[in-house]
Amino acid sequence: MPENRKFNRTASLQRCAVVSPSLPSPCLARIINQSPDGLLLELDREVAVDDVPVSIYLADEIRGTIDYDSPSFLTGFIRWCKKDADGWSGFYQAGIQLVTTAPRKDWR
User: Fold this and answer.
1) Is residue 38 part of a domain?
2) Which intervals hold domain PilZ (predicted)?
């Protein structure tokens, strides 16, 4: 079945954390693949599909840490989340639709 995607995906294994008001604590994750408008995440727990924006903080791969006070993070919405049926690990996968928080150029 052909995929109707605007952008190609690129593989990634970048570690990150999902922060949301609907989560009791940050949820550690790994970006499986990415495109300019979305991410596929692998998580060890289920996250709720909601219209509340989430923040995605990328890990510093050299230090192995995540700076939750950093002003640099991605913003998006969790569009789907399901248990990885093809894997044996028990991980979940979630699709994130990225949004921009930069002001539009036509705003005055």
Assistant:
1) yes
2) 3-98
pTM of the model: 0.82
- Going by their DSSP bridges, the two strands 54-58 and 74-83 should be labelled as antiparallel
Classify each residue of 58-78 as buried b or exposed e, where b means 16 or more C-beta atoms within 10 Å of its C-beta. bbeeeeeebeeeeeebbebbb
Residue given tokens 């990150």 in the structure block: 16
**CATH number where 73 lies:** 2.40.10.220
Quick: pLDDT tens for 43-92: 999 999 988 999 999 999 888 899 999 898 999 999 999 997 776 677 99
Asked if residues 76 and 94 have their Cβ atoms less than 8 Å apart, the reply is: no
User: The domain containing residue 21 runs over which residues?
Assistant: 10-99
Assess if residue 3 is contained within a domain: no
